[in-house]
Amino acid sequence: MATTTSPDEPAPALVRYGNFLFRYRNGVFPAVMLATFALLPPRPLAGDWAADRWLDLVGLAVCLMGQGLRAFVIGLAYIKRGGVNKQIYAARLVQEGMFAASRNPLYVGNMVVLAGLFLIHNNPAAYVVGGGFFLISYRAIVAAEERYLRGQFGADYDDYCRRVNRWLPSPAAIVPAIAGMSFNWRRVVIKEYGSFFSWAATALAVLAYQAVWRDGWPGAASALAWTAAAIAACVAGAGLVRALKKSGALRDPAA
Questions:
Q1: Which of 80, 76, 68 is nearest to 100 (CA)?
Q2: Cβ(177)–Cβ(96) under 8 Å?
Q3: HEC-encoded secondary structure of 146-192
Q4: Is the pLDDT of residue 1 over 80?
Q5: What does the pLDDT look like over 173-224, one tens digit per residue?
Q6: How many whole angstroms separate alpha carbon 207 and alpha carbon 201?
Q7: Domain 12-183 = CATH 2.40.128
Q8: H helix count then E strand count, the chain
């Protein structure tokens, strides 16, 4: 295995934290989100709940932008972010598709989705506490992944880092990066249905929580009814896609 050193080498503590989060993020991230929203209740925009409805729409639009980026990335070139046995792993260095414009476009999409959820919730303290936690956490995960990839791919990875931004996609690199590539919509559905239904259900739950905080239990009955129905639809949609996937009716022909 080739190893190199880099002046951009992250602090060991950050790498250790990143490895911990990589292994346990599916439990830690939802727990932190739930605790943040529960302990820091929603606040109306400029003290006006009517105006806050517009912010809710903006937040949903931001979530869709983040999901759209993730779908675009996965439809062009897939990278297995779950590792092997909850440990960071890469059989090859993925550099095609959006990975030629950003080294972490999926994580950028995640952070955009999170930003949308925080906008819907709209508590200034939650922006600082929750937003700060997720920014630091994703930086730590990326630091751990970079340490692994540098050890795994050596000079090839260092060259990739010199050419491609860590976070924001380079606009000039996007068009040549995706030129001639085909979009695999089946892979998007198969790989992304869980993420989509998870954040959509979370957004609906936040809207329900907001309605209770704004109107009280009796006044929020109507909002609770439609959000519960929408969450049930999300669960049913995820179950349907999972069933189609398991039965083989929905499969990625490129797999």
A1: 76
A2: yes
A3: HHHHHHHHCHHHHHHHHHCECCCCCHHHHHHHHCCCCCCHHHHHHHH
A4: no
A5: 999 988 889 999 999 999 999 999 999 999 999 999 999 999 998 999 999 9
A6: 10
A7: no
A8: 8, 0
Closest CA to 202 of 230, 242, 236: 230
Calculated CA dihedral for residues 242, 247, 251, 255, nearest 10 degrees? 110
Does pTM top 0.85 for this prediction?
Answer: yes
Locus of tokens 């929750």: 130
Cα(58)–Cα(175) distance, integer angstroms: 28
pLDDT tens digits, 121-136: 999 999 999 999 999 9
| Domain residue extents for the chain | 12-183, 185-255
Q: What is the mean pLDDT of the chain?
A: 92
